[in-house]
TrEMBL record:
<dbReference type="InterPro" id="IPR001242">
    <property type="entry name" value="Condensation_dom"/>
</dbReference>
<dbReference type="Pfam" id="PF00550">
    <property type="entry name" value="PP-binding"/>
</dbReference>
<dbReference type="GO" id="GO:0009239">
    <property type="term" value="P:enterobactin biosynthetic process"/>
</dbReference>
<dbReference type="InterPro" id="IPR009081">
    <property type="entry name" value="PP-bd_ACP"/>
</dbReference>
<dbReference type="Pfam" id="PF00501">
    <property type="entry name" value="AMP-binding"/>
</dbReference>
<dbReference type="InterPro" id="IPR001031">
    <property type="entry name" value="Thioesterase"/>
</dbReference>
<keyword id="KW-0596">Phosphopantetheine</keyword>
<protein>
    <recommendedName>
        <fullName>Carrier domain-containing protein</fullName>
    </recommendedName>
</protein>
<dbReference type="Pfam" id="PF00975">
    <property type="entry name" value="Thioesterase"/>
</dbReference>
<dbReference type="GO" id="GO:0009366">
    <property type="term" value="C:enterobactin synthetase complex"/>
</dbReference>
<dbReference type="GO" id="GO:0047527">
    <property type="term" value="F:2,3-dihydroxybenzoate-serine ligase activity"/>
</dbReference>
<dbReference type="InterPro" id="IPR006162">
    <property type="entry name" value="Ppantetheine_attach_site"/>
</dbReference>
<dbReference type="GO" id="GO:0031177">
    <property type="term" value="F:phosphopantetheine binding"/>
</dbReference>
<dbReference type="Pfam" id="PF00668">
    <property type="entry name" value="Condensation"/>
</dbReference>
<comment type="similarity">
    <text>Belongs to the ATP-dependent AMP-binding enzyme family.</text>
</comment>
<keyword id="KW-0597">Phosphoprotein</keyword>
<dbReference type="GO" id="GO:0043041">
    <property type="term" value="P:amino acid activation for nonribosomal peptide biosynthetic process"/>
</dbReference>
């Protein structure tokens, strides 16, 4: 407490005390003497606490000076209210622990026959039991004054109390208690927070009290007796259940203050002895009230056996000492030491003012002989006064209901809510809508009669009018019927995204059959399992796709000659609401996908409800981007057609490319997509969203994206719903906060229930159950699973059902639902439902894998990625690339983890289950088996691959998709490559060339053949003047590849490299000769200025010489950039040229080669060095024997011509980047000024905190590139 008070000296939270309400006349002088004698008696009050060199210590105060004011408020309009205001003000004043007294007394006169006496103490002196002892002592002194007063008055000393505590600290019992607590928490624990998240302790608290009369209290005791329990156990069980129901948890921690007075001495001595202990309450939903109370009673007893071990030490043992949390969970403080007081024969009642700090919620139960009072205290940082009042009233009602429950009634079935609250919840489900009398087929046919010439479906340059659509649907339906389609039959559809897709869906429905949509890109094993279970009567597909589809199901190929539909249309089958409309397969937790059977009535109701929420007109064009394997695609394909609007069907490649989607959206009015796709479209193409109606669903919508969409779009609607309740069940208009999933659509009911299927209050998490006209029939052929997930509706008409979603939600104060997460292992990846169990089951079937777990991790960009953890069998290894290929052959792409982590064993909880919270974060690396980069372009592409995939390194032969890439990450990569290399690239390009080596060839930027040419095209594309980069003394210009990340993509970048590096050629005799040669080279790609030149080290000198020659010849030099210092005469004179063997050794060592393997004294040969560079994934892997030997001669020549060079002044735009660190990494004593003597005009000097030798490392080069890019924009008037 002392430490906590020092951290916040102005906090009054440790002020504890009460007031005594005296109902009768009082002899004030006699009362004051009684109080003074009580203070003299209580030695605990004669201390202060101060800091000393040995730490904080209790300091005795020999001559305690204090007084008790007497305040008369009898003249106030409301004396009682005035008195309470005064006492609350005094309770809110902090104590200074270093100054005595650490107590505060006040006597308030309300009337001749009524007084309030408050006695407040810093908690470091007294606990609640000690406060009670003081009140009783004052009453006793008032009745019969003890002999004597002052310092000689016999005291209740604290010394024996402290000695008793010291003996315990040194005893074996303490060690036993500590070990017992360690066992108690051996399986770990999570502090329980009733408020949802921990909040800082406020300086005050909010309180609401409920009083029970003596008769009501006796009734509670009688009920407790009937249950074979006690009042304390019953209250504890009720509070544990109350907390569990409010936190949606069956394992809660409570904090229980224990007065700890186990000896007669302790029970008679005022002091601070109370201990705060945790009690773990494991709740069992089906457990009756008596058994719950008995079991928690036993739990209490087991804890109380070890109550002397201090809670502060226990927090330290559990690693909580460094946290702000003082307690373990909500506080339940049952005080049975209530007392009847009289003063002069007049009764007095006791009322608590404060029990100390309130972190979350504290329930204080004061048990008196004549009744019971429940005070609920709440932290104002977490609760409003209304919240606290609701908790007080609700808990009291819940306690009474638990007490009155029958002996067999489960505690989980006791309602938290009263009739009024339940009625209010039911009113939120008032979403009645007249059930449609017809289905989608008839509605589209009616629209075709009304607007036959209006566009219905648009795909690229082709389209169908409503009349053409109706004609095609009727003719295809006849052909399907002839091939066996009809009521009670299932027709599988595996079609490309073209004009045949929508007519095929409608034609199947017209026959009375149900359709089974298949994604042709799913693995053959997955498709085979679906077809085997569903057993469709017919498979409708195309000749191109037929070869990919497994199974022996009869097939109808739409595009094969001889299968064109007959001219006559088939009559539509009658509308039967209960008949199946479609079967859609989703991920299954057992490893077996499950087919959801949705009826025609389900679908008709959904479309009718959505027409109200998203009203479309004939002027609307809805862009359809979702695969038909995802049920939300049916809104995109059908809602426009029953509204007279047009479906704009995006192609397969287009839906994977956010830029293409944005282009299509420009000519559309509405689009539905997952947050993942909207994030890409809105983030990179915000103009495409402006003025559009945005429908977003399939996965949680975060607030940042919600705000972005709401700011740009005409309207944004957040949609929620599982496949089992027909596409969408709730909707919410979005104004900036994306957490709400809103309210139910027409004829849909939603219920937020706890584990006992009872409604929970607003703000309390619960599982979402959905009822109404959208609830599907169940799972095809899986009756057990259907019974498990589709349960009887206790709130609906007999025979109605609810679907248990597994989603954790809560009601907000405004009545909207808020999505919180999952209660099971199901997750959403890019909008697709993924059962982690199915992924784990597939991994478990892989030979050599003994255990597997899967989870979802969020990366820095907010993207959710699937991560698998595997344990290989003894003596084997697990190759992530091979595992990914294995799963890709069996699961859809969205279910294949992007990252695999190999472990020796999976972490387990105390009960032997996988501890998902303990699974380690994946390291940002992968099994990189490809070669290292060899060219500047490969260097940049490897970096971009790694950046997008979240890896540290990628080789040029590593497959983007095998390293965890998927379509949305691929599009991010496409954008980054365009921005960096300026290359035209599509998603298809990456699919066809998924490795860096293949991609450089397909993009035409493969410079392996010209890597040593004098003019090296680092980035050849772009229409603006290039940047020409000059090589250092002996190296190639590849080091400037990093500039591509920073310069605008429209700026080409070329490197100038030494002659003789590629083939034998004469070396230049001077820098002026070299500069003239290089000018001829750059004019082959840029005949006229402006010329932008950049050089590092030796290259800076050459670039400067080129600039002077160009200027003298009348050519425009746009920008000269010089990196690093001008070499001093000492640097040139004493420049040491490494020997051939030193050079070779450095090259070999750079690959990580074990130099100890070299034969001592044996010279290294160029052939060996070249082979080592090639096989060691070195950036210099392209260097052959000739290139290595040539480099040494080039280096020697560069040193010679640099020493002989005499630079001439250059006047123009110059950027000079000056390193500020010396070779040893210490700051330079004086900045370089040599270059400035050769530069004039617009010269900008930039200091870079690095060494000369490291100027081209990523961080310094980024500073250079960013400023060069800005300067080029300024020179071109684009800043």
């Amino acid at each position: 407490m002392w430490f906590a008070q020092q951290l916040d000296e102005n906090s009054p939270v440790y002020t504890a005390g009460e007031y005594v309400d005296i109902q009768g006349p009082l002899d004030v002088e006699r009362f004051c003497r009684a109080v003074r004698r009580a203070v003299d008696w209580a030695e605990a009050l004669h201390f202060r606490v101060a800091a000393t060199p040995e730490g904080p210590r209790q300091i005795p105060v020999a001559d305690l000076q204090w007084s008790m004011p007497v305040v008369d408020v009898s003249a106030e309009a409301d004396p009682h209210a005035a008195a309470l205001d005064l006492l609350r003000e005094q309770t809110g004043r902090p104590f200074d622990l270093a100054e005595a007294p650490l107590f505060r007394f006040t006597l308030v006169r309300l009337a001749e026959d009524r007084y309030l006496w408050s006695h407040l103490y810093h908690h470091v002196l007294l606990d609640a039991y000690g406060v009670s002892l003081m009140a009783r002592r004052v009453a006793a002194e008032y009745a019969e004054p003890s002999a004597g007063t002052g310092p000689d008055t016999p005291r209740s000393p604290v010394g024996p109390l402290l000695a008793e505590s010291a003996r315990y600290e040194q005893s074996a019992r303490r060690a036993e208690d500590r070990a017992a607590w360690a066992r108690y928490f051996a399986g770990g624990f999570t502090p329980t927070v009733l408020a949802g998240s921990a909040r800082p302790v406020s300086h005050g608290f909010l309180r609401h009290g409920v009083e029970l009369s003596a008769a009501e209290t006796d009734a509670l005791r009688s009920d407790a007796d009937r249950h074979g329990s006690t009042l304390v156990r019953l209250i504890t069980a009720a509070f544990a259940a109350y907390v569990g129901r409010h936190t949606a948890s069956q394992d809660v921690l409570l904090s229980l203050p224990v007065h700890g007075r186990s000896s007669a001495l302790a029970r008679s001595t005022p002091g601070m002895v109370t201990n705060m202990l945790p009690v773990r309450a494991t709740l069992q939903p089906g457990e009756p009230v008596p058994q719950a109370a008995a079991r928690l009673g036993r739990e209490l007893l087991s804890v109380l056996r070890h109550h002397r071990y201090r809670g502060e030490e226990l927090r330290r043992d559990l690693g909580l000492a460094a946290t702000d949390a003082r307690f373990f969970g909500p506080v339940l403080n049952i005080q049975e030491f209530g007392h009847s007081l009289t003063f002069g024969g007049h009764p007095a009642s006791v009322h608590n003012l404060s029990n100390g700090p309130v972190e979350d919620l504290a329930v204080n139960v004061h048990v008196w002989p004549d009744g019971l009072r429940i005070d609920v205290d709440g932290n104002p940082a977490a609760y409003s006064a209304e919240d606290v009042a609701r908790h007080a009233v609700r808990f009291t009602r819940f306690l009474r209901a638990c007490a009155a429950a029958g002996p067999e009634r489960p505690i989980a079935s006791v309602d938290l809510l009263d009739t009024t609250e339940l009625t209010a919840l039911a009113a939120r489900n008032d979403a009645a809508l007249q059930a449609p009398g017809t289905d989608v087929v008839a509605l589209v046919a009616a629209q075709a009669e009304h607007t036959p010439g209006a566009p219905a479906v648009v795909h690229g340059e082709r389209s169908l009018t409503y009349g053409e659509l109706a004609d095609r649907v009727g003719r295809l339906a006849r052909l399907l019927a002839e091939r066996g389609a009809g009521p009670g039959r299932l027709v599988a559809l595996a079609l490309p995204r073209d004009l045949d897709l929508v007519p095929a869906l409608l034609a199947v429905l017209r026959t009375g059959a149900a359709f089974l949509p298949l994604d042709p890109e799913f693995p053959a094993e997955r498709l085979s399992a679906v077809l085997a279970e569903a057993d469709p009567a017919l498979l409708l597909t195309t000749e191109e796709l037929a070869g990919r589809l497994p199974g022996t199901c009869p097939r109808l190929l739409l595009d094969r000659a001889g299968t064109a539909p007959e001219p006559a249309a088939a009559a539509p089958a009658p509308y039967l609401p209960e008949a199946p409309a479609y079967v859609l397969y989703t991920s299954g937790s057992t490893g077996r996908p499950k087919g959801v059977c949705v009826s025609r009535g389900n679908l008709a109701n959904f479309l009718a409800a959505m027409r109200r929420i998203v009203p479309l007109t004939e002027a609307d064009r809805l862009l359809a981007v979702t695969t038909v394997g995802f049920d939300i695609a049916l809104l995109e394909l059908l809602l426009p057609l029953v509204s007279g609007a047009a479906v704009v069907l995006a192609g397969t490649d287009q839906v994977r490319d956010p830029a293409a989607v944005a282009g299509l959206l420009a000519d559309s009015t509405v689009m539905q997509a997952t947050p993942t796709l909207w994030r890409e479209v809105a983030g990179r193409h915000p103009e495409a969203v402006r003025g559009k109606r945005v429908l977003v669903g399939g996965e949680p919508l975060d607030s940042a994206l919600a705000a972005r969409l709401a700011a740009d779009a005409r309207e944004v609607v957040n949609l929620y719903g599982p496949t089992e309740t027909t596409i969408w069940s709730t909707t919410a208009p979005v104004t900036g906060d994306g957490t709400a999933i809103g309210r139910p659509i027409g004829n849909t009911q939603v219920h937020v229930l706890d584990s006992g299927l009872r409604p929970v209050p607003d703000g309390v998490p619960g599982e979402l159950y959905v009822g109404g006209h959208g609830v599907a029939a169940g799972y095809l052929g899986q009756f057990g699973l259907t019974a498990q997930r589709f349960v009887a509706d206790p709130f609906g008409v007999p025979g109605s059902r609810l679907y248990r979603t597994g989603d954790l939600v809560r009601y907000r104060a405004d009545g909207d639902l808020e999505f919180l997460g999952r209660v099971d292992d199901q997750v959403k990846i890019r909008g697709f439902r993924v059962e982690l169990g199915e992924v784990e089951a597939a991994l478990g079937r892989r030979a050599g894998i003994t255990a597997a777990a899967a989870t979802v991790r969020e990366d820095a960009a907010g993207d959710h990625r699937l991560v698998a953890y595997v344990v290989p069998a003894d003596g084997t290894t697990a190759d992530p690339v091979e595992l990914r290929r294995y799963l890709a052959e069996r699961l859809p792409g969205y279910m294949v983890p992007s990252t695999f982590v190999v472990l020796d064993a999976l972490p387990l909880t105390a009960n032997g289950k996988v501890d998902r919270k303990a699974l380690p974060e994946p390291r940002p690396d992968a099994v990189v088996r490809g070669r290292g980069h060899r060219t500047p372009q490969e260097d940049i592409l490897c970096g971009l691959f790694a950046e997008v995939l979240g890896l540290t390194r990628v080789g040029i032969d590593d497959n983007f998709f095998e390293l965890g890439g998927h379509s949305l990450l691929a599009n991010q990569l496409v954008v980054r490559i365009k921005e960096t290399l300026g290359a035209e690239l599509t998603f298809r390009s990456l699919v066809d060339a998924p490795t860096v080596a293949e991609l450089t060839r397909s993009l035409g930027v493969d410079t392996t053949e010209s890597a040593f040419d004098v003019l090296l095209p680092i980035r050849a594309s772009g229409t603006r003047p290039p940047l020409f980069c000059l090589h250092p003394m002996g190296g190639p210009s590849w080091i400037f590849a990093g500039l591509m990340r920073h310069l605008d993509a429209d700026h080409p970048i070329y490197g100038l490299q030494p002659r003789s590096l590629a083939r034998p050629e004469p070396l230049p005799d001077s820098i002026e000769e070299m500069a003239a040669d290089y000018i001829e080279q750059i004019k082959t790609v840029r005949p006229e200025g402006p010329y932008h030149l950049l050089g590092w080290s030796f290259g800076g000198i050459v670039a400067h010489a080129m600039a002077t020659q160009l200027a003298e010849a009348g050519d425009e030099v746009g920008l000269l950039t010089v990196m690093a210092d001008y070499p001093s005469e000492d640097d040139i004179t004493n420049h040491r040229i490494p020997s051939e063997q030193e050079f070779f050794a450095a090259a070999v060592a750079s690959t990580g080669y074990d130099m100890s393997k070299l034969e001592p004294g044996k010279p290294l040969e160029a052939a060996f060095v070249a082979e080592t560079l090639r096989t060691g994934n070195s950036p210099f892997a392209l260097f052959g024997e000739y290139n290595l030997l040539a480099l040494i001669e080039i280096y020697k020549n560069s040193v010679r011509i640099m020493a002989e060079h005499k630079p001439r002044p250059f006047e123009g735009n110059t950027l000079f980047f000056r390193p500020t660190l010396a070779k040893d990494g210490t700051p330079k004593t004086a900045p370089d000024e040599v270059w400035l003597s050769y530069l004039s005009g617009s010269v900008e000097v930039r200091d870079v905190e690095t060494r000369h030798e490291t100027m081209t490392q990523p961080e310094p080069l980024a500073q250079v590139g960013t400023r060069v890019a800005d300067r080029l924009r300024e020179l071109e008037g684009r800043s």
